[in-house]
Design a protein that fits this description.
Layout lengths: L2 H20 L7 H8 L3 H7 L3 H29 L2 H14 L1 H10 L3 H18 L9 H23 L6 H25 L4
Helix pairs in contact: 1-2, 4-5, 4-7, 5-9, 7-8, 8-9
């Protein structure tokens, strides 16, 4: 795809996101998107079949971003060195502020939030050397708590317009995560599953 094509697709995506912030997806028209993006209708159809395809691609893009870029942050939470890596969370937020704000705060996407939790759970399980398919109930519940808790804390922080400084926020996540990790390690060692 040439730069002109990339630019047109970016314009279409940005126009869709702005319209989606303003109204429900079923109220958005292709005409509105193309007018706001200042592209021809045919250009829209070159990239997408319909509005729902744009939405699906945005969901997929957000999930890929989270999977590729949040892994290091989640590992830092698990290892307890979030204080040193707190900048990662801040940089991640500022780089993807529009998508994060839209899909997690303004118009929460339950499917995406569940995908984020599953990604976080797999990272925790892999980092701790556990078997994803043979988790004891106790550990399964604690891992669910970690993933849901981290997501809930981050969502609250964003909803509160990040009024807590990033260092203090990181310390809270670290404290909550570490106590849960300690429980898992103790349980796993006592039951010889690690």
């Amino acid at each position: 795809m040439n730069k002109t094509g990339e630019s047109a697709k970016i314009k279409i995506d940005e126009a869709f996101l702005k319209l989606y912030e303003e109204k429900n997806i079923d109220r958005i028209t292709i005409k509105e998107i193309t007018e706001r993006a200042e592209v021809y209708r045919g250009t829209f159809y070159y990239y997408y079949n319909d509005i729902y395809e744009i939405y699906a691609q945005m969901e997929n893009r957000m999930t890929e971003i989270i999977e590729s870029e949040l892994s290091e942050i989640i590992v830092a939470f698990i290892e307890g060195n979030i204080t040193e890596n707190i900048k990662l969370l801040e940089d991640f937020y500022y780089q993807y502020e529009n998508l994060i704000s839209l899909f997690l705060i303004k118009k929460p996407n339950i499917k995406m939030m569940n995908q984020i939790k599953e990604i976080a759970k797999k990272i925790v399980i892999n980092k701790l050397g556990l078997d994803y398919y043979n988790l004891p109930d106790d550990i399964s519940y604690v891992i669910e708590f970690i993933a849901s808790g981290q997501q809930g804390l981050i969502t609250k922080w964003l909803k509160d317009s990040k009024k807590m400084d990033i260092q203090s926020f990181g310390d809270i996540i670290k404290t909550c995560t570490q106590s849960s990790i300690q429980y898992i390690v103790s349980y796993a060692n006592a039951n010889k599953i690690i």
